[in-house]
Amino acid sequence: MTPDSAGDSSRSADAVLSVIVPCYNEARTIASLLDQVLAQRSVGEVIVVDDGSSDTSAKQVQAVADPRVKLLQQAFNMGKGAAIARGIQAATRPYLVIQDADLEYDPNEYEVLLQPLLDGRADVSFGSRFQGSGSRRVLYFWHAVGNRILTTASNTMTNLNLTDMETCYKMGRTEVMQSITLEEDRFGVEPEITAKLAQTGCTIYETGISYHGRTYDEGKKINWKDGVSAFRCIAKYSRRNRVSFPPADEIADVAMPAELVASLDSLDGADNYNAMIARLIEPWLGTRNCEVGSGIGTIANALLNNARVSGASGDRREFVVSDPDSDNVAKLNDRFGSTTNVSVRAGDLSTVLERPNEFDSIFMANVLEHIRDDRDAIAQCHEALTDDGNLILYVPAGRSLYSETDRAMGHYRRYTASSLRRSLAAAGMEPVEMHHVNAPGALAWWALTRRLGRQPTEASLVQNYDRYVVPVISKLENKVKPPFGQSLFCVARGASSVTP
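The structure corresponding to this sequence follows.
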């Protein structure tokens, strides 16, 4: 956006900026930071995304009387990248900037970063800590070395000549920043933004800024593991290594090979794996429950085998199992016909979920990825749930794991936490629980499908994995949630009923 023809760029800077502030346990600094941000005449709105803080950060934001401050709250910690992605999509001003909540970056420098944008010379303006005459606190030598190495690696892939790829201060035209879809939920978002901006062909400027770094004792969170992740993201989001989902029409026209159908049937006998999924689902069930896309009833059967779900005669939960395929419906009737608290429905979503507010929970295990318009499917589920009902999802995770096997299975996509949250938000829902499941399975899936060209659903592989690996990971992941996995487990509710 160029300045008005009158040429007064100082006037055109008034209230044009959306400031995105990802915030996680920053109670010591958030109030002071907001004072500094709101003092800038260029600021039109401040969008603070509280990322599941366990301290008083959110309360301090709520205490700010300035109407320009908007607080968005994640129900649990999803990571800096997820918070940035949510804030960017909520921005309404012509330009936006990302601002950490820890006082390491000085909001007084918004004006100098804005100038190339207001002049019409740039689409994006980066603030460099390693360029210019701004003051800089002297801290960790190896951090500086690591930043320069990461920047060089990023430049090699993007063909940019940045001096500070990892900078927080990435300012740009809002329409440009909103045109890229962010997938990284944590600190890997910095190289991802850079790579995706480079791929748009937009004009990027860089301006020297001051930097007032903090120590780990003062609350610094990034560490060497995030540096390793940054290298992964640099490679992942480069042009030649990018993984894209096939067009939807192409997926719809694929017929699943007979050998793949046969091997998928073996999953019905993966008792440990199915029991693991059932244990994840069970605590979130209500009295009236519905499974969408039950297939032959594998997950419902595992749930019913759980004593807590079956319950005493006066405390049994009711289940509706459903499927659009007539053969599967016949198998569901055979399997559950004599089970008094289970009923079978035939049809697609609109048929099964035709009555509003009917269910306390709706669950889908490895189903949502098969639906072309997942947002519409979520919206239908939302309508069929009670006001505080739970939508329980188990979906394949990891965009980079998408393979020909996914395509043959009719998967339109694999999910990241951010992409799933966006689909939920579009239907007026918010996650109250989300985490990865089956980390070893992700590694096995990548090795088999992307490197060896084998189907990870081969009966012998499934049986051995289920027998020897699943019992171990089920116990371990019950205690420590992995940072990645073959699947994502998510529970969501209507946004109005979510209280972080």
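Confidence is low (pLDDT under 50) at residues 1-11.
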